[in-house]
């Protein structure tokens, strides 16, 4: 039965992930992402849409930054593009993020089979394994021009294939594989952790006390990413390099910095559920920053730091120590 609505697609994906041994977050359908899932070191950050063209560009930017901090693999999973159904084992791109159909996701998760074809303007393309291409060309005693002539491309294009400089269209790749009698195309590893040179900093545009709290975290040596369409306000990482990039191996912190003084207990507990849920799946710690003196050290197990305390820490180690103490208590 064809999937026709987003909720049905989300349920299918959720069931697939659980069946295949992933730890899964709650479903966050009002967020820039819908599901976070983890299996060993693999973290998936999934956005689910019926039409992949409806992805919001500002949401994509936030997904990229969150994925960068968690070293997660961001993927859009959909059903169609405009009026065309997404083809199996084909990768589409929207604002720089990979987009695939449900069956392609199943093939990767269940069978460890990755797609090879990228849909781009003008057609379908594959990445050639240049080393294999050169090895088999030489084994058949063919010059670059010889093989280029057989494949109906220029010598310069064949040179670019061998050196990984350009992608080939699928027809040319199939012809080359037929000539050389071997597989020469590369899989597209969508489970590769997303890493981008995103400079982390305090976002001073946050409302209420969030901006100053983010600045205080930055002053302690944290790299900070502020979010607008996520179940949290910010991500922070304790150690960054001299170039303001993340060091590997440092678990991030998930934070709600913009908590209003008049938030009721029910709302705060709902926020705590999300923080706890996402921290568990991503192996992270989480915390609140607020001013309410009636709330002492935690909300449902999530440490609470008061705004005035933020100014008293000397460095990130002191801050992390207090988070750990309040978490254990």
Per-chain topology:
Layout: H1 6-19, E1 23-24, E2 35-39, E3 42-48, H2 57-70, E4 73-78, E5 80-81, E6 84-85, E7 90-94, E8 97-101, H3 102-111, E9 117-120, E10 123-126, H4 130-139, H5 144-151, H6 155-162, E11 168-169, H7 170-180, H8 210-219, E12 223-226, E13 234-237, E14 253-256, H9 265-282, E15 285-290, E16 298-299, E17 302-306, H10 307-310, H11 316-328
Parallel strand pairs: 3-4, 4-8, 7-9, 14-15, 15-17
Antiparallel strand pairs: 1-2, 2-3, 5-6, 7-8, 9-10, 10-11, 12-13, 13-14, 16-17
Overview features:
alpha/beta; about 325 residues; 17 strands
Number of DSSP helices?
11
Gyration radius over CA: 24 Å
Distance between the termini: 50 Å
Which strand order do you get reading across the main beta sheet?
1-2-3-4-8-7-9-10-11
Helix content: 25-40%
Question: In terms of quaternary structure, what is this?
Answer: single chain
Structural class: alpha/beta
The biggest beta sheet reads:
9 strands, mixed
Number of strands: 17
Description:
It is built from 11 helices and 17 strands. It is an alpha/beta fold and 329 residues long. The strands form 3 sheets. Strands 1-2-3-4-8-7-9-10-11 form a 9-stranded mixed sheet, sandwiched between helices. Strand 12 and strand 13 (234-237) form a beta hairpin. Helix 5 packs across helix 6 (155-162). The N and C termini lie far apart (50 Å).
């Amino acid at each position: 039965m064809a999937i026709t609505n987003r909720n049905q697609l989300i349920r299918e994906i959720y069931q697939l992930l659980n069946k295949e041994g992933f730890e899964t977050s709650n479903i966050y359908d009002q967020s820039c992402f819908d599901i976070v899932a983890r299996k060993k070191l693999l973290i998936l950050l999934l956005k689910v849409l019926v039409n992949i063209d409806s992805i919001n560009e500002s949401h994509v930017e936030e997904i990229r930054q969150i994925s960068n901090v968690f070293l997660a693999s961001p993927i859009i999973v959909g059903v169609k593009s405009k009026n065309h159904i997404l083809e199996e084992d084909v990768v589409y791109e929207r604002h720089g993020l990979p987009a695939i159909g449900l069956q392609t996701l199943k093939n990767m998760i269940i069978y460890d089979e990755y797609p090879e074809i990228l849909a781009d303007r003008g057609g379908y393309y594959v990445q050639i394994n240049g080393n294999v291409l050169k090895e088999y060309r030489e084994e058949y005693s063919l010059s670059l021009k010889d093989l280029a002539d057989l494949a109906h491309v220029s010598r310069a294009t064949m040179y670019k294939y061998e050196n990984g400089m350009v992608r080939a269209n699928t027809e040319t790749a199939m012809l080359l594989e037929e000539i050389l009698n071997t597989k020469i195309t590369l899989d597209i590893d969508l489970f590769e952790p997303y890493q981008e040179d995103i400079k982390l900093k305090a976002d001073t545009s946050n409302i209420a006390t969030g901006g100053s709290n983010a600045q205080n975290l930055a002053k302690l040596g944290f790299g900070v990413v502020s979010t607008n369409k996520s179940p949290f306000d910010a991500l922070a990482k304790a150690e960054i390099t001299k170039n303001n990039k993340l060091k590997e191996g440092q678990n991030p912190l998930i934070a709600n910095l913009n908590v209003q003084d008049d938030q009721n207990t029910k709302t705060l507990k709902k926020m705590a559920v999300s923080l706890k849920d996402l921290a568990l799946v991503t192996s992270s710690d989480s915390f609140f920053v607020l001013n309410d003196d009636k709330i002492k050290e935690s909300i449902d197990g999530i440490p609470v730091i008061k705004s005035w305390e933020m100014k008293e820490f000397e460095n990130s180690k002191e801050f992390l120590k207090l988070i750990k103490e309040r978490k254990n208590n």
